Amino acid sequence: MIVKFFKHGTGGGKAPVRYLTETYDKEEKIWEERENSKVLRGNVFQIEQQIDSIENKQKYTSGVLSFAETITLGQKEQIIDGFESTLFPGLDKTRYSSLWVEHREHDRTELHFVIPRQDLWTGKGLQPYFHSSDKNLVDSWKEIVNIEHKLADPNDPKRQRGLVLSRDLPRDNKNA
């Protein structure tokens, strides 16, 4: 399993929700329901409205848990619960909201999440993930989950690429 937090989080609620649940057809120039996606937790409309109501610059935290394997519904529920309890230790589940959407693309199972940065009880800001202080905690949780569920470990030397190319290399150089 890989855990990735996205840098987005300042716009309205429509963009992150639409990314998770819809896809844009360039030929028809319309938004369509995304194939191979399924809402696992949360209310799409509520999350969008909550993000739009937040007045702070940073309105939401989003990211993905990505798996090389196919995982069962029970494993998904257990992993989501564990992830949320890692981000919100000791915080009652009624104090925050989240949207979890599963994507099955490219022979991977991806659990995408969007968490509005707002405490539902007080209306004040809520910071679910602060990279400099929470990275080690989330990495430790990831390693435990990978071991418990016998998931592929992205840090395993056997999975390491022999050659890593820079993303900004010209296409001709990459092909060579």
How is this structure best described in words?
The protein is α+β, with helices and mostly antiparallel strands and 176 residues long. It is built from 5 helices and 7 strands, in the order E-H-E-E-E-H-E-H-E-E-H-H. The strands form 2 sheets. It has a 5-stranded antiparallel sheet with strand order 1-5-7-6-4, sandwiched between helices. Strand 6 and strand 7 form a beta hairpin. Helix 3 runs antiparallel to helix 4 (131-148). The two termini are 31 Å apart.
Q: Quick one: overall form?
A: globular
N-to-C span: 31 Å
Helix and strand pattern: EHEEEHEHEEHH
Q: Averaged pLDDT, please?
A: 87
Low-confidence stretches: none
- Percent helix, as a range, is 25-40%
Residue share in β-strands? 15-25%
Describe the oligomeric state of these chains in a short phrase: single chain
Number of helices: 5
Strand order, biggest sheet?
1-5-7-6-4
Number of strands: 7
Radius of gyration: 18 Å
Q: What structural class do you assign from the helix and strand content?
A: alpha+beta
Characterize the largest beta sheet: strand count, sense, and whether it forms a barrel. Answer: 5 strands, antiparallel
Structure in a nutshell:
This protein is an alpha+beta fold.
Which descriptors would you attach to this protein?
5 helices, 32% helix, alpha+beta, 7 strands, two-stranded antiparallel ribbon, 176 residues
Produce the secondary structure layout:
Layout: E1 2-5, H1 14-21, E2 22-25, E3 30-33, E4 37-41, H2 44-53, E5 60-67, H3 73-87, E6 99-105, E7 108-116, H4 131-148, H5 171-175
Antiparallel strand pairs: 1-5, 2-3, 4-6, 5-7, 6-7
